[in-house]
Write a structure and sequence with these properties.
The protein has about 140 residues and is of the alpha+beta class. It is built from 2 helices and 6 strands.
């Protein structure tokens, strides 16, 4: 007697909510490629922009996170997140300097993507009244 056809719907032993291990691995790999990697790249661009501002204020961003936090506290640097659902183009981080009188130093905008799929992050230098753009990395190949 021949073996049953595995593609025959009558011979299928799994339900609609079960998938094979290979199918699960393929889905996880696709999720990693299409979602997780681009998000990680966008976060890295945002962190690099924040690091650019902190470096200009005298913080060494190449050290461990707790050492960077200690440097920020010593120099009186605070970072405030600003989010607004009505105008998402204004979302970002304000960087202030000073222990008692908070002086606005820079605004780092949230990561944005242009029509070519490249990710950028704007830095508005409030003391110098100028804007720079960092990034330019294509998120999805």
């Amino acid at each position: 007697m021949s073996k049953p056809d595995p593609l025959d719907p009558k011979a299928v032993k799994t339900t609609a909510f079960e998938i094979s291990e290979d199918e699960l691995e393929a889905r996880m790999k696709k999720q990693e490629e299409l979602h997780n990697e681009p998000v990680q790249k966008a976060v890295a661009i945002l962190e690099a922009a924040l690091c650019t501002v902190l470096t200009k204020l005298g913080v060494d961003c190449n050290l461990e996170d707790d050492v960077v936090k200690a440097q920020q506290e010593f120099l009186g640097i605070t970072i405030w997140e600003h989010t607004d659902e009505r105008s998402p183009q204004l979302n970002g981080f304000f960087v202030h300097v000073g222990h008692e009188n908070y002086t606005p130093f820079a605004w780092v905008g949230a990561a944005r993507i242009n029509h070519l799929g490249q990710c950028f992050c704007d830095i508005q230098w409030l003391q110098e009244d100028r804007m720079t753009e960092t990034g330019g990395i294509k998120l999805v190949q």
